[in-house]
Design a protein that fits this description.
Blueprint (H helix, E strand, L loop, with lengths): L2 H14 L12 H10 L5 H14 L3 H5 L3 H7 L6 H19 L7 H4 L7 H12 L8 H9 L9 H11 L5 H14 L18 H17 L1
Helix pairs in contact: 1-11, 2-8, 5-6, 9-11
Pfam families: EndIII_4Fe-2S, HHH, HhH-GPD
EC number: 4.2.99.18
Keywords: 4Fe-4S, DNA damage, DNA repair, DNA-binding, Endonuclease, Glycosidase, Hydrolase, Iron, Iron-sulfur, Lyase, Metal-binding, Nuclease
Length: about 220
């Protein structure tokens, strides 16, 4: 894909979702890091329901370490993989206290060293908490990028990220991440995407195939 085509895609998605933003509720970098960690294989909506009470009970890394692991597990039981995530949260808090003075580090390289924090989580934190341009590739960004031909079907998450970084102006990386998520979450869904009203269907092989099949079906029945 060339940058001219990408520009059209970016502008179109911007018109559809001008107010796209991080939907995980948080008040500071520490809460954002915990929320993103919890969001792996879980919807933002469920995470927000859990963190309403979680962030009132636990406000500092020390708070998470002052309870038994079983209690923390119970507090996040509605989240998928809650046992593993509870363990990672306590390990993360210990490292943040011991190595970073109780504060979430600003550097990407230091963030990915934290338990439960991968490249995607680190990108979300640096971009939303610290204003550093980044494109985090989650399931929505990955799906949309491949459907629209920005990336190939067998590209890894890292390859998708690199292609987006190359095609999208750096100052637009963070907002593009949010808009691609909104586009994937509310329009180009995994199941039942809105191909029939999609202004970008011309770039989507899957969408064009679906529309062609629908037209053929209508012509047979008419």
């Amino acid at each position: 894909m060339n940058k001219t085509t990408m520009r059209h895609i970016l502008d179109t998605i911007a018109e559809l979702f001008p107010d796209a933003h991080c939907e995980l509720n948080h008040r500071n970098p520490f809460e954002l890091t915990i929320a993103v960690l919890l969001s792996a294989q879980c919807t933002d909506e469920t995470v927000n329901k859990v963190t309403v009470n979680l962030f009132e009970k636990y406000k500092t890394p020390e708070d998470y370490l002052n309870v038994p692991l079983e209690e923390l597990e119970n507090d996040i039981r509605r989240i998928g993989l809650f046992r593993n995530k509870a363990s990672n949260i306590q390990k993360l808090c210990r490292l943040v206290i011991d190595k970073h003075g109780g504060e979430i580090p600003h550097e990407h390289e230091q963030l990915v060293e934290l338990p439960g924090v991968g490249r995607k989580t680190a990108n979300v934190v640096v971009s939303n908490a610290f204003g550093v341009p980044a494109i985090a590739v989650d399931t929505h960004v990955d799906r949309v990028s491949k459907r629209l031909g920005i990336a190939k079907k067998d590209d890894s998450v890292l390859e998708v990220e690199k292609k987006l970084m190359r095609l999208v102006p750096k100052e637009e990386w963070t907002i593009t991440h949010h808009r691609l998520i909104f586009f994937g979450r509310y329009h180009c869904k995994a199941q039942n995407p809105k191909c029939e009203v999609c202004p970008l269907v011309a770039y989507c092989k899957e969408g064009k195939s679906k529309m062609k099949a629908a037209l053929s079906k209508r012509s047979v029945t008419s």
